[in-house]
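Shipment paperwork, digital attachment
Item: protein structure file
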Amino acid sequence: MNRLRVFVVLVIGGRDGVEAATDTERHPVHGRGGAATAGVGALLALFAACGCAANPSATAPTRTAATRSGQPVATAAAAAAYVAIANPANHRLDTDFDRFDGPDRGDLARARTDLRDIAATEHAFDQDLARLELPPAAVTWAQVLVGANEARAALTSRAAANTALPQLNALRPVLSAMNAPVERAVTALRADLRLPPPDTH
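Attachment content:
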């Protein structure tokens, strides 16, 4: 499974004051990109629908218009806050996916542990993102990102519940396909924050 670190870096405009932030991202959603193989389209749609409904609280509105002082949220400050939550999440996801796609690929117990940690990281990132104060232009995409990422996390949790390695591995193409909507939302959000796009390689 390719990894597409979905949360952090890209340039569609300047870095606008966040040049010093470390951009260590490979995905958007984490490098887990790639299209689903033939035959998984319907299954993907079903899982995505179930995932979005499974955790409605995760799509709580992100704060929008102003800070506590009543002043508009500065794009540079919002971008720096985003990078501050995205970089650690991406680092943790990279570590989990390196194991999941590498030494743990043939080990059911370890693969399930990797997936559980991946889902937990995705949930934690969504909660952190929902708490950020963002410029109005970025709020809509932040909400879209949370919804898409929660759908993916729900499927990741289902995959982790498998008690047989063949069934777990059969979900790998679907898990990869779930990356596309997250990647689109991350790219758009980062553009609104004047950050470079995520590296999907």
